[in-house]
Design a protein that fits this description.
The termini are far apart. With about 160 residues, the protein is mostly helical. The N terminus is likely disordered. It has 6 helices and no strands. The protein is globular, with a radius of gyration of 17 Å. It has 2 domains: about 30 residues, no CATH class; about 100 residues, no CATH class. It binds heme C (HEC).
Length: about 160
């Protein structure tokens, strides 16, 4: 396991050496060239806010993704079926296979680390293709947290 996959949430058991101070871990990740968002397990907020797909997640998709992920857009022309416009995005994300990797699922309800959507916006680079949004700055950690929490809370159409 590379330092990129170190889990800050890990608590050492008896007899194990305690983890280095969080700042040391962050520094080690920087030195290793790993952006902090590479780790899908990091939850940056820890609050219990219920995330709404319509009110919290879809506005991110509409603002930063739907231009390409809609008929005639860059993703469509690339052969990616995933449209991220408000009317169709939910049904095309949840429990749907990825075009890029047939063994991958875009959103697995409750399982953020198994959801390719989260990997595509939080890993740079992801296991296949470019980090999304393509050719644009990454989503903020707060936006990534909303998507992660929505998936962890069951990826509901709420
Ligand atoms: C500039 C155009 C563009 C933008 C903006 C964009 N995408 Fe993409 N997206 C693509 C292209 C092209 C691909 C296929 C190539 C790749 O993955 O690098 C893709 C692939 C994907 C895939 C993989 C789909 C599959 O079936 O495997 C996901 C998931 C994805 N994008 C999500 C997003 C999200 C979420 C956003 C917004 C945060 C976004 N994209 C913004 C062009 C774009």
């Amino acid at each position: 396991m590379s330092v990129c996959c170190a889990r800050p949430g890990y608590r050492p058991g008896p007899g194990r050496k305690p983890l280095p101070h969080a700042a040391t871990v962050a520094l080690a990740m920087m030195l290793a060239g790993c952006p902090a968002e590479t780790d899908l397990h990091v939850d940056n907020n820890n609050d219990n806010k219920v995330v709404s797909f319509a009110n919290d997640v879809q506005p991110i998709l509409t603002a930063t993704c739907a231009g390409c992920h809609s008929p005639g857009g860059g993703a469509d022309r690339f052969g990616i079926a995933l449209q991220l416009t408000a009317d169709v995005s939910y049904g095309l994300l949840v429990n749907q296979p990825s075009v890029l990797g047939s063994e991958l699922t875009l959103v697995v309800p409750g399982e953020a680390a198994s959801s390719f959507l989260l990997e595509k916006v939080s890993s740079n680079p992801p296991s296949i293709g470019d980090r999304m949004p393509r050719f644009a700055p990454a989503l903020s950690l707060a936006q990534i947290d909303l998507i992660r929490d929505w998936i962890k809370q069951g990826a509901r159409d709420n």
